[in-house]
Amino acid sequence: RSRLRGSVLANRLSSNPDYSVLLLENGGNPNPIQNVPFYFQSLLHIPEIDYGYYTVPQKHACLAMKEQRSYWPRGMGLGGTSNLNCMFWQRSSPHDYDRWAKLSGSDDGEKWHSQKGNGIYVSTVGHDNLVDEFLEAGREMGYPTKDVNGNQEPSFSRLDVSIKEGRRFGAYPGFLEPVLDRTNLFIYRYAHVNKIHLEKKTNRAYGITYKRHGVERFVRARREIIISAGAIDSPKLLMLSGIGPKKHLENRMPNQSPSWEKPDGSHHDNIRSFYCGHSWKNECAWERHNLNTVVDYFSNRRGIMASAIAANAVAYIQFILKRDWKFEE
Question: Is residue 236 one of the residues assigned to a domain?
Fold first, then answer.
């Protein structure tokens, strides 16, 4: 989300000709093969497009993983992880984001689903494998078939994805590619930011140091500096700049004197697993991937390769945990 937000900010800020915007990106343009939705999982772990982070060993999770560490993919390049994710488009719950609650609603038209064509393009998965059976199962359990990206009540529906005409549609084509010709927007690719510089008396950020093509450079900001490096690299850059929990900075970076103490935060991600049941084995994506599907995709931009790992439906089910769970620190 942070990288997508960076693309949005670069677009919105540079729309004002009075502003000069410098966008520094550690990677380059999205790799063309990333446009093919089907291959998203095969492109993980590639250093040029994925930072390839792992979590620290977990106590109560990742029990089947090596060293109980979870792989945490993060996209490198303009558009960030929107070039690497599985393209599922699910809106956040209004219960988690109360300020956005009024934006919820049913799929009645442009009120909740804009048709202007700006930003991320969202479509509904086109292939119908087991969709009817899935929706019917939901109805048997008492759940309506409705748009889960509308008012978000418990329901079953087809899956929305950020795919346009069989191609991934992330932050780069949505917000950056259309404005590359703006004369007040400067994009430096392969530029790694190392430090944010703060004024000693006021702690006001006034510039950054970055390294590009082996040369370290300094750039001063006229107005402000916006960090949008993701859930891992944003706090990392802050701490490298002396901003963060004082105790952590003193223990982990003894040579870095804290410039500004800020309380630490936390972040979590979900663990996901896939399986292929015997009853629908022939519907598994990789088992149906052959020369015909490749030709169909590159000729017509359709078929299983134009989909997000063969997923095509989703359900929001409401339930209540009655057991009191206790976790050790």
Answer: yes
Listed as own residue / partner, the contacts of 324-329 with beta carbons closer than 8 Å and 24 or more positions apart are 327/60, 328/59, 328/60
Q: At CA 63, angle to CA 58 and CA 69, rounded to 5?
A: 45
Is 75:82 a contact under the CB 8 Å cutoff?
yes
* CB neighbour list of residue 255: distance below 8 Å, 6 or more residues apart: none
**pTM over the 0.90 mark:** no
On whether both 290 and 247 belong to a single domain, the answer is no
Indicate if 233 and 122 belong to the same structural domain: no
State phi, psi for 123 to the nearest 5 degrees: -130, 175
Residues 236 and 269 in one domain: yes
Are 203 and 307 in the same domain? Answer: no
Rounded Cα gap, residues 40 and 314, in angstroms: 19
Buried (b) or exposed (e) across 228-253, using 16+ Cβ within 10 A?
bbbbebbbebbbbbbbbbeeebeeee
Are 104 and 238 within one domain?
Answer: no
In a domain, 328, yes or no: no
Closest CA to 130 of 281, 308, 324: 281
User: How far, in Å, are 36, 132, 179, 240 from residue 236 at the CA level?
Assistant: 32, 46, 29, 6
State phi, psi for 88 to the nearest 5 degrees. Answer: -65, 135
Domain extent at residue 107: 89-161+275-320
What is the rounded radius of gyration, in angstroms, for the C-alpha atoms of the chain? 22
* Per-residue pLDDT tens digits for 130-177: 889 999 999 999 999 988 887 778 899 988 889 999 999 999 999 999
Contact between 171 and 79 under an 8 Å Cβ cutoff? The reply is yes
